[in-house]
Design brief:
The chain is an alpha+beta fold and 386 residues long. The chain is built from 10 helices and 15 strands. About 3% of the residues have low confidence.
Length: 386
């Protein structure tokens, strides 16, 4: 969804700008229930979009720092300040449910399978450069994860042997505990502490996994990082986490970290570069070759009379947008350097130049105007006292 077409996050959740964190959370859960596609089967696609819109609003407003940034700058300002927000419109419902822990609201994962069928999710970090953000890149990951033991096929039992029925629970996997007396007796059913709820005792553990049914192995994986990723965004790689009780794997969450660039600063999709120039270059103008991403250089015209902090914008030389792929700009910010030491010849030349500045409003309009205001101020003060 383009930034300009986004609705106000407070409007999306139906709350005031003074809403407390508790009110924001309540409004989000109500919106999630209201717009869940399974409850709006006649208009499922529209409901899913509204659900994702509410999820994006909640992600920002539930985070104190992001909320403060949004209150101050709005949608466009957050993008320009490089504040990462998940791309909910390209995520499926299962990912959003897992992200916000909504399994209890909708009976498990969105595809109908229950959370307990899945293994644990894993998380890792991927570091990329701005050059890689500009083009997209494939990264090789090496990480350790649990795998089903090949020797025992996950049973934990040494091949050729059998398990014994647990004598404590009789093979049921549960035990009943009572407390109190008379009419106040209470009964609590818990997992058997002896067999840990399996109902079976392993007499001969697997030599490979030592009865765990799992072994740790290194995993080599290629992950595609799309162009335009923001620092702090998360890529989800499905089925690359730990195996669950029924074999379904969790997911791998890849946290993207963008390395600082030696001379470029990112603001949304724009890139900002501070360009040092001499005061003579600023005064007379010049043409300078400036570096861009990918070691390419472009010619930049510095107009005469350029002031410190002026911006020169180079169109479409920034980073691509993750969704639209439209490029931002390269913004060159001029930093006028004043020499700390002067030669005798330079000093004489500057003294001659300084003589031409006196009372010359065409040469130094801001300076002359400032001192005219100072004279008028003190003149007015003197007249008021007399």
């Amino acid at each position: 969804m383009p930034v300009s077409s986004k609705r106000d996050y407070y409007e999306v959740l139906g709350i005031s700008r003074e809403a407390s964190p508790e009110q924001i959370k309540k409004a989000w859960r109500e919106a999630a229930l209201k717009h869940h596609p399974d409850r709006n089967k006649e208009n499922k696609k529209a409901s899913e979009e509204k659900f994702k819109e509410a999820a994006e609003a909640y992600e920002v407003l539930s985070d104190e720092r992001k909320r403060q940034m949004y209150d101050q700058y709005g949608h466009e300002g957050m993008r320009n300040h490089g504040e990462g927000v998940h791309d909910f419109h390209h995520m499926d419902l299962r990912e959003i449910f897992d992200m916000f822990g909504l399994g209890d609201m909708f009976g498990g994962r969105s595809n109908g399978r229950y959370q307990e069928d899945y293994g644990q999710d894993l998380q890792t970090e991927i570091e990329v450069t701005l050059e890689e953000v500009a083009t997209g890149v494939e990264k090789e990951l090496i990480f350790s994860r649990e795998e089903i033991c090949d020797r025992c096929n996950g049973s934990g039992v040494e091949p050729g042997t059998k398990t014994d029925r647990c004598a404590t629970c009789g093979g049921y996997g549960q035990v009943e505990q009572t407390s109190g007396f008379g009419f106040f007796v209470s009964r609590v059913v818990t997992a058997c502490p002896k067999c840990r709820g399996t109902g079976k005792i392993i007499s001969t553990p697997c030599k490979e996994c030592k009865s765990r049914g799992r072994v740790s192995k290194k995993r080599h994986l290629t992950v595609n990082i799309p162009a335009g990723m923001q620092d702090g965004q998360v890529l989800r790689v499905r089925g690359e986490g730990e195996p669950g009780a029924k074999g379904h794997r969790g997911d791998l969450h890849c946290l993207v970290r963008v390395k600082p660039h030696p001379f470029l600063i990112r603001h949304g999709n724009d890139l900002v570069m501070d360009l040092p120039i001499s005061f003579t270059q600023a005064a007379m103008g010049c043409t300078i070759e400036v570096p861009t991403l990918g070691k390419k250089k472009v010619s930049l015209d510095i107009p005469n009379g350029t002031q410190p902090g002026d911006f020169i914008r180079l169109k479409n030389m920034g980073l691509p947008d993750l969704r639209s792929k439209k490029h931002g700009d390269l913004i060159v910010r001029t930093q006028v350097e004043i020499p700390k030491k002067l030669s005798d010849q330079q000093r004489k030349l500057l003294e001659q130049f300084a003589e031409t500045e006196k009372n010359n409003k065409d040469v130094m309009p801001s300076t002359c105007g400032f001192w005219d205001k100072i004279k008028q101020y003190f003149s007015a003060q003197t007249n008021s006292k007399s």
